[in-house]
Amino acid sequence: MELLLLSNGKATEYPGLLGWARERVQSVLARKQVKRILLIPYAVIRSDWDARALELTESLGVEAISIHHFDDPVAAINQADAIFISGGNTWRLNQLLHEYSLIVPIQRAVRERGVPYVGWSAGCNVATPSIRTTNDMPVCNAAVLPALGLFPLQINPHYLDASISGHMGETRDERLAEFCAVNPSEHVVALREASLLQISGEAIEYWSARGQDFKIFKHGEAPQEFMDTAPLAGLTPFNPKV
After folding, report:
1. Strands 195-200, 2-6: parallel, antiparallel or unpaired by DSSP?
2. Are 29 and 74 a contacting pair, CB within 8 Å?
3. For residue 167, what pLDDT is reported?
4. Does a structural domain hold residue 219?
5. What does the entry give for GO biological process (predicted)?
6. Does residue 165 sit within a domain?
7. Which of the chain's termini has less CB crowding within 10 Å, N or C?
8. Looking at the DSSP assignment, which residues form a beta bridge with residue 5?
9. Are 204 and 197 in contact (CB under 8 A)?
10. Sign (positive/negative) of CA torsion 171, 173, 177, 180?
11. Which domain holds residue 143?
């Protein structure tokens, strides 16, 4: 498989959509000889889908076209050179992936044909077994459904461990601890802004444009911080990239 799971799409110090990870994304596209990107922008609610595709094209130098232009979205997946899933609202995204019957076609494209999958924010969330660790509000009447399951662990994108003065609600750490308490057999990988997990074949690598760590949450244990993927070796079928 070729997966790039990014915490976010934009970073203030790096211009352009995916600008902070541009070199890594372009490297995958070049290696896989991708001529056109199929963009799935279903998570985008208050912006234009074609504008998002154009923004991606201009940033990466490879044409991107939104899936809504195809009469048959399943056929579009089956013919895709690369699948990019945008950030936005994870609930809406996952709902439409199921309603348009795209879960299995995407799984087959990535697992069987080796089609590169690049997902940021909501697109990162749906690459995991479920959307239970999204930060988003459930804006639509959709049940918590299984997601794509391309990556075997839950991910929490946009992870932030700062405390806001005057805020009396739960911190992100407390929310993730609640998830682990309810699901004690599961781990959660928390990705800070401008960081990603890259899976290529059987190898997994972590990279942060800002040189920051990621965290792993597990019930009954204090969250631990890491800069390399060695701790994920026993939790996933992937081997740390050396």
Report:
1. antiparallel
2. no
3. 63
4. no
5. proteolysis
6. no
7. C
8. 119, 197
9. yes
10. positive
11. 2-153+193-209+227-240
Q: What residues are labeled active site?
A: 121, 136, 158
Packing angle, helices 49-60 and 22-31, rounded to 10: 80
Per DSSP bridges, beta strands 214-218 and 224-226 are antiparallel
**Mean pLDDT lowest for which of 1-15, 79-93, 111-125, 161-175?**
161-175
> And the tokens for 89?
């609202």
Q: What is the Cα–Cα distance from 2 to 116, expressed in whole angstroms?
A: 5
Question: Are 228 and 240 contacting, i.e. CB atoms less than 8 angstroms apart?
Answer: yes
216 in any annotated domain: no
What's the CATH code of the domain at 112?
3.40.50.880
Tell me which long-range contacts 217-223 makes (C-beta under 8 A, separation of at least 24). Answer: 217/156, 217/173, 217/176, 217/177, 217/179, 217/180, 217/187, 217/188, 217/190, 218/180, 218/187, 218/188, 219/177, 219/180, 219/181, 219/183, 219/184, 220/184, 223/173, 223/176, 223/190
> ∠ at Cα 96 (93, 102), nearest 5°?
105
3-class SS of residue 58: helix
The model carries a pTM of 0.96
- Report pLDDT digits (tens) over 115-169: 999 999 999 999 999 999 999 999 998 777 899 999 999 999 999 987 666 665 6
Characterize the bridge pairing of strands 239-240 and 203-208. Answer: parallel
Q: Give 153's Cβ-side CA count (13 Å radius).
A: 28
Cα torsion 181, 150, 104, 9: sign: positive
Q: For position 141, what pLDDT does the model report? A: 87
User: Which residues have CB under 8 Å from 208's CB, separation 6+?
Assistant: 192, 194, 195, 196, 214, 227
